[in-house]
Amino acid sequence: MSISPKAASARTREICQMAPIVPVLVVHDAAHARPLAEALVAGGLPALEVTLRTPAALDAIREMAQVPGGVVGAGTLVTPDDVAAAVEAGAQFGVSPGATDQLLDACEAAGLPMLPGAATASEAMRLLERGYDMLKFFPAEASGGAPALKAIGAPLPQISFCPTGGVSPGNARTYLSLPNVVCAGGSWVAPADLIEAGDWAGITELARAARQLAG
Length: 215
Prior knowledge:
Elements: H1 5-16, E1 21-25, H2 33-42, E2 47-51, H3 57-64, E3 71-75, H4 80-89, E4 93-95, H5 101-110, E5 114-115, E6 117-118, H6 121-130, E7 134-137, H7 145-153, E8 160-163, H8 172-176, E9 184-186, H9 192-197, H10 200-211
Parallel strand pairs: 1-2, 1-9, 2-3, 3-4, 4-5, 6-7, 7-8
């Protein structure tokens, strides 16, 4: 079932509004996926982005899709094949570092709500022209951080963003205080050492603290 850009953006906006932080997850062992998702959901972060950067990523999405209360998405979508694999695994939304017409065509045809990446005013305007008004600002810190995003927002107030890339507990509040920021993506809520140790309670605590970061 296909989806229009406007409907896709409306759905990704709903997902982004669930919590101030969207965990950006790199999962190396699919056995960790379900308890990791349960820990993050328990801490108040229900929207989960699993990056397609490891061989275990698609299996991790399959496992997380079964967790009550969670909404799992696939990150690092770059090609139409990525989109097809993510949808087959049960992803409920997609995230990309940038955007191409071919990639957006594939997401719309597959009915996958997409959070496409933009780093400049021109990229944001092209996506707005197509119908997308909920975007990922990436790489956030390397692209000028909160001051750059604030500046882009002045002439383009109709576009909202989820900054990702270099967002941390130290700067998240600054991003989240901007009127054009709905949420931010961060990897610190699921550090590799806690995942490897199976310290799910520790991850729940990090998620609870992140939940309190709303601007």
